[in-house]
Design brief:
By secondary structure, this protein is mainly alpha-helical. The protein has eleven helices and five strands.
């Protein structure tokens, strides 16, 4: 692994990290000042509209290595291009950006989804990983930005912000404590469709997209439909089995189910049926009480 990306300076204000998270970070040898957008001068022309600048950056990345249609990322090509060097000052500008300036739920949701996706790609490139994100020790805690003076890891953004401060499925308890200043940015309600928009860097992840506040509802519906109808849900009518992406197991409570998909599965089936093609939707709804549920293998190889 390359050098430690330290942000131990006045721009990083400490946040109260819960004991179980401190232990988890210590196990992964993740330092509380580790962040990718430090040691770089912020862009002077980023202005206040960081969200728009971020979206424009992702559009530039798309022409240099992002395939929006397939969700694949050409990490080698991105690493050789100039877009990452051009992006670093914008990422550095996030250190002083207050997410509280985003006034609508749609703006906040689009911003944090885009940040998560661009941060993950930045992390793969920064740590020079060519096989799997899981090869980066403690990746979802290690890969982080400082935003508005506070450190946000991938897991902070997903579980603390976008999932409304819910627990990681393997780590009990809410993500942020009551004293944590990052808590004021959490979304009041979890939108299960975020799971079809967040890109975890794996082949089994949803395809990458670029999200905008004024079209977010349509974009998230489209992301859900695309993921569910293109391999996220596989139906075997002969044996009465529905094979679901592991996403529906790990985040079962977000879809109306219980922890890790235990207990009754009907709420999850009824949720995903909304996005199935007509004939498949009718079949799942009519047989929801009797269908057997299985979960697909999750391929953690990089989405290249």
């Amino acid at each position: 692994m390359p050098q430690h990306f330290s942000c131990a300076d006045a721009e990083l204000r400490p946040s109260p990290i819960r004991l179980r998270m401190r232990l988890y970070m210590r196990l992964g040898k993740v330092k509380p000042d580790e962040a990718l957008n430090c040691n770089c001068k912020p862009a002077s022309d980023a202005g206040g509209d960081i969200a728009a600048a971020l979206k424009a950056t992702m559009n530039r990345w798309r022409s240099d290595g992002l395939n929006i249609n397939t969700g694949r990322v050409d990490y080698e090509r991105l690493a050789r291009s100039q877009v990452i060097d051009e992006y670093r000052p914008l990422a550095a500008a996030l250190r002083k950006f207050d997410p509280g300036e985003l006034v609508t739920d749609e703006a906040r949701k689009a911003f944090w989804i885009n940040i998560y996706n661009v941060l993950l790609i930045h992390g793969v490139l920064a740590y020079r990983e060519a096989r799997s994100l899981l090869k980066i020790r403690g990746a979802f805690e290690r890969i982080a930005y400082v935003i508005g003076g506070h450190r946000y890891s991938l897991d902070d953004i997903e579980h603390g912000i976008l999932r409304g401060n819910r627990a990681h499925f393997l780590i009990p308890g809410s993500r942020f404590s009551r004293q944590d200043p990052r808590r004021r940015h959490t979304l009041a309600q979890v939108d299960p469709r975020i799971h079809f928009a967040l890109v975890c860097g794996a082949s089994s992840c949803p395809p990458i997209g670029i999200y905008q506040a004024d079209a977010l509802d349509h974009q998230l519906n489209l992301a859900a439909s695309n993921f569910i109808n293109n391999g996220g849900v596989k139906i075997d009518r002969n044996d009465g089995i529905v094979a679901l992406s592991r996403i529906f197991q790990w985040y079962s409570p977000d879809f109306g189910g219980r922890w890790m998909g235990l207990g009754k599965r009907e709420p999850v089936l009824r949720y995903l049926a909304k996005y199935l093609a007509d004939e498949k939707r009718d079949y799942v709804l009519s047989c929801a009480d009797t269908l057997r549920i299985g979960y697909q293998h999750y391929d953690w190889a990089l989405n290249v």
